[in-house]
Design brief:
Layout: H1 9-15, H2 41-49, H3 63-76, E1 80-84, H4 87-98, E2 104-108, H5 113-121, E3 129-133, H6 138-141, E4 149-155, H7 167-176, E5 180-184, H8 189-192, E6 202-206, E7 220-224, H9 230-240, H10 246-256, H11 259-278, E8 283-287, H12 297-303, E9 310-315, H13 318-328, E10 333-334, E11 344-346, H14 358-363, E12 370-374, H15 380-392
Parallel strand pairs: 2-3, 2-4, 4-5, 5-6, 10-11
Antiparallel strand pairs: 1-7, 6-7, 8-9, 9-12, 11-12
The protein binds pyridoxal-5'-phosphate (PLP).
Pyridoxal-5'-phosphate (PLP) binds next to helix 4.
Length: 395
């Protein structure tokens, strides 16, 4: 399709990225090949010199991967995208592309755990300075800017409180300091939030979550806004090697076709469920950007188109109540991850963070009754009934 970038997101979800095919295939096939034959010596030479456009080796470029990458680049409104083997491969490849020894990064303290760990345990050893800070408060970020600050990195909403960071403010601050803004847009995705329109320079996704949306792929992607920034990212990914494979690219590209439908259904369910939970006697508090009680409800309305499918809540009765909820709930799967068509529920204090001491958990804002829910596309009344019945057993 010509000028797919001018179409609405519904049409883009279905059609973007798909390649012209010699057999007329409507869907870009899985080119499950590691390498591509040259026509002759000169062709091989020209491909390597960049004089001919074509494929050489799948780590560098593959039609199925490229189709999916183009689709995500178009959905996010960026120049090009780079498919990675996981969300973490996208995070580490992006930061390796942007930072060298002596540089400084300011990062949200509520980022995905392994992202923070990568700064603390790996990048710092390479001589990159970092500060972790609450990026939802710009006044805490400003004083941390230094002459060597090259990157501000945020996730909005953050974890576990779903605090919203003002992406436009952060972009302005980054640019005034000669730095770039990276946004991990995994929680919202391009249907709900367009970080490039708010000034971000680089977007990262764990496509394991809503872009693929069916809990059957681990994958990530880096989306680059500007043409001149792109070659450095491609070179880093080629050399570090954390690429996605053709089959997973095919699955993600397939998932993207229903992204708008899935996200709208998930968001509608989540708003109803958050409202139900907020009024439930067994629930202490609910964090969901769509509730008027969320401290940045107005900012969320301004910055995003929809409030997402992630809900955090505190069950009354601490660890024991949390465990009872997990052991009695129907429909919801007890599992980490998020963004898929199936609803998932997780109780960090007894599950993912159970090995942490109570003091450390408190520091990380992991309270004893904290429950994280990712809402899927099931029937909303049945999800509410499942929560209501399980909560009644927590008393
Ligand atoms: C899951 C997740 C990641 C990491 O992605 P993987 O695909 O698991 O490597 C990064 N950021 C956020 C916000 C995530 O939820």
């Amino acid at each position: 399709m010509k000028d797919i970038r001018n179409y609405s997101i519904e049409t883009q979800c279905v059609h973007s990225g798909t390649k012209e095919d010699q057999y007329g295939a409507v869907v870009t096939p899985i080119y499950q090949t590691s390498t591509f034959r040259f026509k002759n010596a000169e062709h091989g030479a020209n491909l390597f010199l960049g004089k001919d456009d074509g494929y050489i080796y799948t780590r560098m470029r593959n039609p199925t991967v490229e189709a999916m990458e183009d689709a995500v680049a178009i959905l996010e409104g960026g120049y090009k995208a780079l498919g990675c083997g996981s969300g973490m491969a996208a995070v580490t490849t992006a930061l390796h592309s942007m930072l060298v020894s002596g540089d400084h990064i300011i990062c949200a303290d509520s980022v995905y755990g392994p992202t923070a760990s990568y700064l603390i345990n790996f990048l710092s050893k390479l001589g990159v300075e970092y500060d972790l800070v609450d990026t939802s408060d710009i006044n805490k970020v400003k004083p941390l800017i230094k002459a060597n600050t090259k990157v501000i990195y945020t996730e909005s909403p953050g974890n576990p409180t779903l605090a919203i960071s003002d992406i436009q403010e952060l972009a302005n601050l980054a640019h005034s300091a000669g730095a770039k803004l990276v946004v991990d847009n995994t929680f919202m995705g391009p249907v709900c939030q367009k970080p490039f329109e708010l000034g971000a320079d680089i977007i990262i996704h764990s496509m394991t979550k809503s872009l693929n949306g069916h809990a059957d792929v681990v994958a990530g992607i880096i989306v680059v806004k500007n043409k001149e920034d792109y070659p450095q990212f491609r070179k880093t990914l080629n050399h570090l090697g954390g690429v996605i494979d053709p089959f997973n690219s095919f699955l993600v590209h397939r998932g993207l076709k229903t992204l708008k439908l899935r996200i709208e259904a998930q968001n509608a369910n989540a708003l109803k469920i958050a409202t139900f939970l907020e009024n439930h006697p067994q629930v202490e508090w609910v964090a969901y950007p769509g509730l008027a009680s969320h401290p940045q409800h107005e900012l969320s309305k301004k910055q995003s188109n929809g409030f997402g499918h992630m809900i955090a809540m505190e069950v009354k009765g601490g660890i024991e109540a949390g465990k009872k909820l997990m052991d009695n709930i129907q429909i919801f799967q007890l599992a980490v991850s998020l963004g898929g068509v199936e609803s998932l529920i997780q109780h960090p204090a007894s599950m993912t963070h159970s090995s942490m001491s109570p003091e450390l958990r408190k520091q990380a804002q992991i309270t004893d009754g904290l429950v994280r829910i990712s809402i899927g596309i099931e029937n909303c009344d049945e999800l509410i009934k499942a929560l209501d019945e399980a909560l009644s057993k927590c008393k």
